[in-house]
Design brief:
heterodimer; A: alpha+beta; Fumarate Reductase Iron-sulfur Protein, Chain B, domain 2; 2 domains; five-stranded mixed sheet; two-stranded antiparallel ribbon; 12% strand; B: 503 residues; alpha/beta; Flavocytochrome C3, Chain A, domain 1; Methane Monooxygenase Hydroxylase, Chain G, domain 1; seven-stranded mixed sheet; four-stranded antiparallel sheet; 14 helices; globular; binds flavin-adenine dinucleotide; binds iron/sulfur cluster; binds FE2/S2 (inorganic) cluster
């Protein structure tokens, strides 16, 4: 079987054994043919999020993809390539800090089974970066917070233990929920079955509850919107 | 770079330590050779032990732990861990871990092997993942500094005092130094010595233990390696204990049962080993458990079995083997988590903190990393400022080693040697050990270490050279392997996970 891997100087074809996962194939190539081939991996069981790459232009986990004849393997998009299939995940990870993806203030609430299910799926995220790679917004706006960070914000906002949901919502207005085009590409590539797009829609609804509006509607009466929003902002605090 | 507390490793232990140190007012830098959320802690599924509600008692938890440790644990250390468990869960709840819950507003708990009560709190099928990611989010909230993709080369120790460490910046191939008032090692275990006979992540090569050992730190109980009875045959991916708990049967090639599946891990692993020694292949049969159960309880396992073995556990028994899963041995630490080197702390799977003894109880290691992580961080934050005499000497010596390595032309493939070592270890320093076998393993290690000038790296570039990193891991594995095999040879008493087949 032959596959092509994008390396420093373009695509290189390798012969490999069949019936292996892409990760096993890469390891085999490295150990026997090409010691300089660079790729990231850890758990080999789809939970550490290290090994996401693009195969035939679609994001997959190398450890969960069975190699097919003629597969074309490339690094993720929207990130700087460090070498071969290794990308710099530093910038994507910074979106977590920028979006304030953590519990702001703990409110002691005893949760039940239904409460748990509210954000169990969102907290399945393995930070593989697939959604970030697939998102078209980054090509026009590098400062976009992006799908996994917003999913993670929803994970905390939707948690009954979060005592300050508004602080969370305030932090994702700029380059955040309203910049998403709702194209759903992120959902299609997520290995964990998460839909960042749906989480963004829920965050939009929550933003509206706190008085925020879609800025693209601003042209219909921007001054009013801003003033009104400002007034509303404070009210839930009373 | 300089900081108050340097934490090496960003799994559950490293993050807990960093958080505690930061909250005690210290400046902290956390270094990892991966990214924090890629640490092996994410792989834990089963749960984290704590006594939370009336039916169970902390006394039970202590007793179960001591029983499993077979006399090699320290009662006071076990008591500290078990008594602090409820607080640890309350703390994890307060930072937002999405634990599974019951209808009546309790944190759900299940029973793992060796526990007298359902005591393991879990977060769906992803306990370690959710704890690790929540710790990471919280560390971001505290603005803790991370240095990712930095590989620990050597600790800086002067006159018995640890003062920092040297790292390889994997991204550009440069050596970086971080000096500190104290250093916390949280670099995880060494099960990956067994390569494809281990359930662990690639990163579990025992780097931190090897570095501490080179710096003169005492190690303890290195021969104690826990084998999990049911890992997939070709990939060694873990099939959770709940498969047996729910009625999964172990069968040999003749489709006969040969052991009570509910016995403790070491006994089941031994029974499988003996069966395999007779030439039998072993299968885990869960076909009778039904689609609903398998999809609900073992969804990841079903997916992975299909992927790696081409077997659907609904239709056919799964081919399995026991695999190296957890290493009880490590850097010897006191109750403060300080090692035998002053200001060098060690915590988590890289340490031997006298709580697991000869056999770790499922669910106790996630507990250990949180409870002892916090103790290590707090204590490390208390150390007063120190000064370093000669940083350049340390840099020069590391630099010289790297230059020698880059100058070598590889005549032998170290990836092959790594695999050979793993196969030898699995066969001869695995579930049952014998004097002659161990001697053979030691001879092989000596042979490879004696001919290291023949092994080297083919890739001589600086930027993101994973061939180089793999080689560094290989050398660490050789050193660790030697301590494990020597300890196994010296210890003629079969206890817990260490079983001698000749005395
Ligand atoms: C499949 C599986 C399932 C498990 N299930 C459970 C369970 O249900 N319950 C339970 O209690 N335990 C379980 N365990 C055990 C438990 O997960 C581990 O013991 C624990 O997570 C170890 O945590 P740690 O923080 O000590 O190390 P790790 O999480 O392994 O982290 C080590 C860190 O050190 C870094 N590091 C290593 N070497 C270097 C270096 N040279 N330079 C820089 N950084 C370095 C790594 O990058 C990483 O960040 C399981 C383990 C496995 C493999
Ligand atoms: S739905 Fe939004 S976040 Fe998802 S890929 Fe499209 S634009 Fe990006
Ligand atoms: S949301 Fe899905 S695709 Fe995006 S980082 Fe998380 S697991 Fe990966
Ligand atoms: S290696 Fe961990 S997700 Fe693929």
């Amino acid at each position: 079987m032959k596959i092509k891997i994008k390396r420093e100087n373009g695509f290189v074809e390798y012969k490999t054994k069949s019936l292996l996962t892409l990760l096993e194939t890469l390891e085999e190539i490295k150990a026997t043919q090409e010691p300089s081939l660079a790729f990231s991996h850890g758990c080999r069981s789809s939970v550490c999020g290290s090994c996401a790459v693009r195969v035939n232009e679609k994001e997959v986990l190398a450890c969960a993809h069975k190699v097919q004849e003629g597969d074309v393997v490339e690094p993720l998009k929207n990130m700087e390539v460090l070498k071969d299939l290794v990308v710099d995940a530093q910038n994507p990870l910074r979106t977590l800090e920028r979006s304030g993806a953590h519990l702001q203030r703990y409110e002691e609430v005893a949760l039940d089974y239904d409460d748990e299910k509210r954000n169990a799926l969102q907290s399945d995220c393995i930070l593989c970066g697939s959604c970030y790679s697939a998102c078209p917004v980054f090509s026009v706006n590098e400062a976009f917070l992006g799908p996994f960070a917003l999913t993670r914000v929803w994970r905390y906002v939707s948690d009954k233990r979060e005592g300050e949901p508004k602080t969370k919502i305030d932090a994702i207005q700029q380059n955040g929920v309203w910049d998403c085009t709702l194209c759903n590409e992120c959902t299609l590539v997520c290995p964990q079955g998460i839909s960042p797009k749906q989480d963004i829609e829920k965050l939009r609804a929550k933003s509206s509850q706190f008085g925020y509006m879609d800025p693209s509607f601003g042209s219909f009466g921007g001054g009013f919107g801003a003033g009104f929003g400002g007034g509303f902002d404070g009210s839930p605090q009373f | 770079m300089r900081t108050d507390v340097l934490v090496v490793g960003a799994g559950g232990a490293g993050l807990s330590a960093a958080i505690a140190a930061k909250e005690s007012g210290a400046n902290v830098i956390v270094v990892t050779k991966e990214y924090p959320t890629r640490s092996q802690t994410c792989m834990a599924q089963g749960g984290i032990n704590a006594v939370l509600y009336g039916e169970d008692t902390i006394k039970n938890h202590i007793a179960d732990t001591l029983k499993s440790a077979k006399g090699l644990a320290d009662e006071a250390a076990v008591e500290t861990m078990c008594k602090n468990a409820p607080d640890a869960i309350a703390w994890l709840d307060s930072i937002g871990v999405v634990f599974s819950r019951t209808k009546d507003k309790r944190i759900a708990q299940r029973r793992l092997g060796g526990a007298s009560h359902p005591r393991a709190c879990y977060a769906q099928d992803y306990t370690g993942l959710k704890i690790l990611h929540t710790l990471f989010d919280y560390a971001n909230k505290l603005d803790i500094t991370f240095a990712n993709e930095r590989y620990l080369l050597e600790l800086i120790v002067e006159e018995g005092v640890c003062k920092g460490a040297l790292f390889l910046n994997i991204r550009n191939g440069e050596i970086e130094t971080i000096t500190a008032n104290s250093v916390v090692l949280a670099t995880g275990g060494y099960s990956k010595l067994y390569q494809n006979h281990s359930t662990n992540s690639k990163a579990a090569s025992g780097d931190g233990i090897a570095a501490a050992y080179r710096a003169g730190a005492k190690l303890r109980n290195m021969e104690f390696v826990q084998f999990h009875p049911t890992a997939l045959k070709s990939s060694a991916i873990l099939i959770s204990e709940s498969a047996r708990g729910a009625g999964g049967k172990l069968l040999n090639s003749k489709k006969e049962r040969f052991v009570d599946e509910l016995k403790p891990r070491d006994e089941v692993s031994l029974a499988i080993y003996e069966e395999m020694a007779k030439g039998e292949e072993i299968f885990l049969d869960i076909t009778h458990l039904g689609e609903a159960f398998i999809n609900e309880e073992l969804p990841q396992e079903r997916k992975l079995a299909l992927l790696y073995e081409g077997v659907d556990p609904l239709e056919e028994p799964l081919p399995i083997k026991p695999a190296a899963h957890y290493t009880m041995g490590g850097i010897a630490v006191e109750a403060t988590m300080q090692s035998s080197i002053e200001r060098l702390y060690a915590v988590g799977e890289c340490s031997e903190s006298r709580v697991h003894g000869a056999n770790r109880l499922g669910g106790n290691s996630l507990l250990e990393i949180v409870v002892f992580g916090k103790i290590a961080g707090k204590n490390a934050a208390q150390t007063p400022t120190n000064s370093l005499h000669d940083l350049q000497a340390h840099i020069d010596s590391a630099q010289a080693k790297i230059q020698t390595l880059f100058a070598k032309e590889p005549k032998r493939n170290f990836y092959e040697a790594k695999q050979k070592l793993a196969d030898l270890f699995y066969e001869k320093c695995g579930i049952v050990r014998k004097k002659d076998d161990l001697q053979e393993v030691l001879d092989y290690i000596d042979e490879v270490q004696g001919s290291l000038e023949l092994y080297g790296i083919a890739d001589k570039t600086k930027r993101y050279n994973t061939n180089f990193v793999d080689y560094l891991e290989f050398e660490n594995m050789l050193q660790i392997a030697k301590t494990v095999a020597s300890a196994a040879l010296a210890n003629e008493k079969s206890v817990g996970a260490h079983r001698r087949g000749d005395v």
